Amino acid sequence: MSSSDVGPRRTLPDRIGRYRVVERIGQGAMGVVYRAEDEAMGREVAIKLLLADLENEPEIRARFLREAEAAAKLSHPNIITIYDVDEDHGRVFMVMELLRGATLKDFLAQPEAAPIERKLDVMIQLGAGLGAAHNIGIFHRDIKPGNLFVRTDGILKILDFGVARLASSSMTAAGFVVGTPDFMSPEQARGLPIDGRSDIFSAGGVFYYMVTGRKPFAAANLPAIFRMVLQEDPPAPQPSEAPPDLARIIMKALAKDRDVRYQNCQELIADLNEVRRRFPSARRAGAPGRSASGFDGRAPAADPTPAATPRPSALDIDRTTMTPHPISRTAPVRQPPAPDEAMTSELVRPRPESGTPPAAPISTSEATLAAPVPVPGGASEASTPAARSSGDADDRAAAGSAPPPAAAGATSEGPAATREAAPPASPAVGRAAADRAGAQTLVSAPPVPAATRRPATDAPAAQTTPTVSPRPSAWTSPAPAVRSRTVVWGGAAAAVLVVAIGSMVVLRNRHAPLPVGAPTAPETAAAPSPPAATPQPAVQPETTDPQIAQHVADARAAIDREDFAGALDDLRLVLDRDPQHAEAASLKRQAEDALARMATPAGERAKLRAPDESAAAGIQRLPNESSRQYEDRVKRVKARYAEGRLALERKQFGAAIASFQAVDRDQPNYRDVRSLLADAVAARSAAFREAMDQGARSESAEQWKEALDAYLRAEQYDTGSTAAEKARVVRERLVSDATAALQRAHTYQAMRKPAEAVRLYQQVIDSLPEGHALRDQALQRLRALKP
Amino acid sequence: MIREAIGRRLGLVVPAALVCVVCGAAAARAQFGSGGDRGVSYRVFKDPAGRFEIEYPTRDWRQVPISGSTLVNFARTDGGAALSVESFRLADTLAPSEILTMAEIEIQDLKDRQSGARNFTSEILDTKAGRGALIRYSRAGAKGPDVVMQYSIPVGLDLYRVIAVVPEALAARHQPVVGHMILSFNAPAPGSGSRH
Lengths: 787, 196
Fold this sequence. Notes:
Structural class of chain A: alpha+beta
Helix content of chain B: 25-40%
Distance between the termini of chain A: 50 Å
Shape of chain B: globular
Number of strands of chain B: 9
CATH class of chain B: Alpha Beta
Order of helices and strands of chain B: HEEEEEHEEEEH
Distance between the termini of chain B: 31 Å
Number of strands of chain A: 11
Oligomer: heterodimer
């Protein structure tokens, strides 16, 4: 049977080319997807067959083939594999791997997607897949949850390279906007040339959606979305939704200026890995509230009105997810797209399928899914309920749900005219209502004053205080505008007051310490309008940090006993933590001056000529010792003693012991040298034991590099050969592993698996010390792999 | 002293490796049911581009059209078994010592692409074409479980994959034939008669 039977969309062909069709699993605007059997190869595949009525559309056909071309160039675990592209009776079809799992959106609704670590894994995989595409000059251009698929084994696959563009290609470069506006980059929305940073922006949008459950740019109609994409930063994810580090990564990826964004996926992955690695501590830091909502991952799936539901706080999130949202009772959220929106879509995205984003083609209830098919949001999609239930179809319905009252106005004004349309008075109901009402005031809407725009950094605060955050509607009612100005000026005055008081406090801290009880009239007089209820203390204490106070006291004592080097060490610690510490600075100058004087032979000799002073230091002149010899010995003893103390403090026990032993030889029982010597010996033994234990623990965990480091550390404390022998064995193991990894990396590289090769080369580089031949070899190959 | 030690080790390792290879090949032939294809006559298929040649039975088998990266397809006329040869361009040549890792990668790829596949085994197999990896696994086919044998062998910058699919129920009957076909695969190394 031939594919000529395929004409009607509902008819199941027996064969397409050499493939036996098993069932139809989805349909989109461009084609139908079938599950089929490659009998020659004995494997199941997914076949995307271009619709018969589109065969004569050169652009569609070109896009179809471009998807195949783009994906076929890619061989990466996180990108869907294209097996073949062929024609059967003039009908183009594409043979792809058959996937089982769920689209990202459906995946997020599952309990196993809840942990933030799991989401980070998915994010890293997305970065890896995109990075692989970018490395060979392919940009996806339509990254969104509906185009991302998580297999049952957790592997993420990037689908639908239908709008992907080769860097060398001129297709789609003629100013057409291609992609899904919800996750589109500003430069893509403007129709400008794009590069990999555009996909990074879209990935940032997907990350945002993953952690918050909200699209970064959600509005009731397409022009409003475009306006937000071009002008507004989304509110940063709250700590209850994502660790602050992850939130920063997401917001950096979503930067409007592409030069501010991550410049490549490697940078993005590195930061995500860093968060992934540090996450447990980040999670502890913000535990309250997190367990109740955000990190448990309930938010993304449970929020029925992502576009209209800001999350005021962790507690409110719980309420939102546990009780029906008011808007679901008072206003219909999901309505068919209005004609004007469709028209706008057509204007912006001229291709037939481009106005509506693709949906996941296969029912996720069966946990079976094949390659992506763009599904029209209209009638054809309605005929495939399985497809409609997943992917972006719902997103699209939500985004385009509000009835647009002033269709012509909205369309003619374009995105710019819709900016800041009627901000709501109530954050929950208001945004959707405002988006609906905003269109009524579009034509007469004045440009938004910069001060009333909502900066991204204000967003979290605004969300946590919903009674304050609603912006005044300057175009619908003058009274709220007046109230708004009052609030703004009041806030500004309060801010000035706070800044003034803060400056005063800082200036006081920078002053030299005054004696307790000293008059502070100039300072109090200079303070602007000091609040009567909170009088400033007469004297600011130098510091309240007990450690700093202890170091200062130690430094004083050290200076008293002429241990200027020791004093300087203490003072450096203080000044590192508090550079403005006046007493520390003064003592430091004193100690430095003293050391400088001692370094002067004349000064030193003059000092040593005073027998009382030397005697006080505990160094007695020997009967047959010349004056010069005595001076040299005193100098040597003092220097070695100071060196020993410094070494002991720095845990350089060997050096400390040597110094103290030298001191004791030159001047037995000099000060507390024997006590210090005993301390150093004991500390060295303890450090040795600790390092050896650490080495053994690392070794048993097969953390060879850590084990080697520990044994090398132990070797410093070891007078025998135990640590050295252990270090030698571990080093051999490291080299052996590195050799094997290097060879494996070459095999992966030869088999065109660059990601794994890079990982292995990096492993070799990380495991060996600088200068090692194997490490250099790995570096060289890595550079060749990643020019 | 050291040289002696190395010599002793090599003296042990090299024969052991040879034994393993020979045993592996013998085991593979045994798995194919060596001798089970007595009475079957073969003809040689020569790749028009001269890259490889492979024998296939003169009766009950036919060539089927190819597409994509497949170089040749053979299938039994009754649909009972099929064998195809694919090629993949390597980024660099592989040394014999890399065959094991290559097999790992191949298996991982197969697992990635066929989530239902299971019971993977692999072994080193030397054929006329040189040293490669024979990977066996089973998977659900259209008419019941299938046994798949994939012989992956790097030749210069080409990685050839000879893939045979036999229904499990007919494995005993058809394996000797497809085994013969796999073992007959030959691809002269570019520029020389020797390999690796």
